[in-house]
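Table S5 (text form). Sequence records supplied for joint modeling of the two-component complex.
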Amino acid sequence: MEALVASALGLLTSAGVYLMLRKRTFPVIVGLTLLSYAVNVFIFAAGRLVTNLPPIIDKAAPGYTDPLPQALVLTAIVISFGMTAVIVMMALGAFLEAGHDKVDMNDDAEDSPETLK
Amino acid sequence: MMGHWIIAPVILPAVLGALIVLFMRHDLLLQRVFSLAGTIALTLIAMALVHAATVDPPEVYLLGNWPAPFGIVLMLDRLSALMVLLTGLLALAVQLYAIGTKWDARGRHFHALFQFQLMGISGAFLTGDAFNLFVFFEVLLIASYGLMIHGGGRDRLRAGVQYVAFNLVGSSLFLFALATIYGVTGTLNIADLAVKVQNLPEGDAGLMRVAAVMLILVFAIKGALVPLQFWLPATYANAPGPVAALFAVMTKIGAYAALRFGVMVFPPETAATGTLIADLMLPAAQVTLVLGSLGILGAATLGRLAAFAAIASMGTAFIAISAFTPAASAAAMYYMIHSTLAGAVLFLVADMVLHRRAHDALTEALPPIAGAGLISGLFMASAIASAGMPPLSGFIGKLLVMDALRDSAALVWSVILVSSLIAIIGFSRAGSTLFWKAHASAPLDPPAAPAQPQAFVAIFALLAGLVAMTVLAGPIMGWLEDTAAQLHDPAAYIAANRLPEGS
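The corresponding C-alpha cell record, covering 620 residues in total, follows.
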C-alpha cells in the first residue's frame, strides 16, 4: 500500500508541477489543484497508513489511527477549495479584461488578442 | 496577565469585518467610522499586550481550554506583542490615507477586507502552533487577494492572478513541510517542537532537515528572499498605493516566522539541522539586497522602485536574521520596524505622485505636479529612510546590523555599503526625474491640487514614527535586546505551554 500511495503522490505532484509551468491560466489552475490533492494525500500519509482501525482509542480495537492528520487534512481541503475558487474568479476577471488568458504580464506587443484566438 | 485579551486582536477584526459586510455594505461613512474605530481599538489592545509582555513572562492562551500540545495555543511574548503593535500602528496610518484619498470608495468592501487582513496578520504573529500559523497565513492571504485587486483594472487583475498562483504554491509547500514535521515529531506546537527537535533520534535527522528547509523556503517566499522574490515587484507595483503600504508588514511576517523558527525550533546547535539554515539564508539575503538595490537603480516606474526598495530592505533584515545571535536578532527587529514604516511611506508617496502625474514612468520628465514642493520633500525623506542615510532610523538600523555581524565583516559590510550606495543613486535619479527635471519642461499651469489633509497626516505620522525611532533609538534597542534574549532562551516560552511530562 505504501508503494501505491507514494507513487500516486509522485505522479500527482509531477503532473501538477508540469501543468503549473504552462503559460495559460487554465492549465496553471488545474496544476495547482492537482498539487493540492497531492498535499492532502501526503498529510493523510503523515499519520501513518493503517487500515480498519478507529480514529479513537477503543479497548475493543487492536489499535487506533492518528486522528490529527484527518483534522489537518479537512482544514487543508477547505482552504485549498476556497483558494481555488478565488483564483478561478480572478483569472476569469483578468481574461475578460485582457481578452486572453496568458499568465505573464509583458506580452501585449507581440501577442494581440487576435493572434491568440 | 492578559487572559482573554490575548485573542482580542484576532476576534475584534474578525467580528468587525463580518459586521461591516453584513450591515454597513451600502454606507461608506459608517464603514469608515467603525473600521477606523476598530483599528484604533486594536492598536490600544496591542499597546496593553506589549506592556503585559514586558512586565510578565510569556503567557499562553488555550483555545477551547484544550491543553497543549493537543489543543491550539496562542502565545503572547515580547516579539509577538511588538509585531501586533507595529501592525496596528501601520494599519491606522494606511487606513487614514485610504480614507483621505478616497481609495476605499473605488471598489467595494475595502474596509471589510482590511479588517480580515488585520485579523490574519495579528493571528499569524500571536499563534503558538505551526499549523495554526498556516491557517492564519491563508486568512491574511485571501484578504490580501481581495485588497490587491481593489479598484480593478486589467493589469492589476493579471498581476493578481500571478500573486495568487505563487502563494498557492507556497501554501502547498508549507503543508508538505508541516506534514513531514508532524510525521517525524508527532506535534506541531512550537514549544513542543522546540523540545522534540533537540532530542530527535538520529535516523530522523535527514527527514527533519528536508522539512526545515521546506519551511524556511515558505518563509522566504513570504519574505521575498531571492530566488523566490519574483512575485513581489509586479504585485506591489500594481496594487493600490495604500494596500501596497499595508503589504509592507506582510513581508515582515516571513521574516518574523523565519526568526521564530530559526531561533526557537532549529537553532544552529540542533544536531539535525546544524548551521544549514544560516548557510542557505545568508548568501540568499545578500543577493536579495544587491538585487533590490539594482532594481531601485533600474526601475522604470515609481511603483516598481518602491517594490524593489521593499526587496532590498528584506535582504538587510534577512542578513541580520541569518546570524541567529541575540545581538543580530535585536538589530533585525529594529530594522524590521524601521523598514515597515519607511516602506509604507515610500508606497504612499509614490501613490500621491502617481495620482497627480499622467503616469508613473521614470523614463521621461513631465511638467511639475500639483503640490510638488511638499511631495518632493516627503519623497526625499522617504528615500533617505529607505536608503539608510542619516539622520533617519535606517542609518541606525544598518549600523546595528553591521555591528552585530562583525565576524563576517569583509563580505557582509561591503555588500551592505555598496548596495546602499547603489540605492542612493537610484533614489536620486528617480527624484531628479520626477521633481527637478520637471521644471525644465513646458511650465504649464499646474492643475489644482486635490485637498487631502488626512492623507498628508497619515504620511507625516509615519515619518514621525521614523523620527521617534531615531531619537529614542537607545531605549528601543534596550527593549529589543531583552526581547531577543527572551527569544534566544525559550525555556520560559516552553514552560508557559505547560507540556505534559515525557510526552
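Note: Chain A has four helices and no strands.
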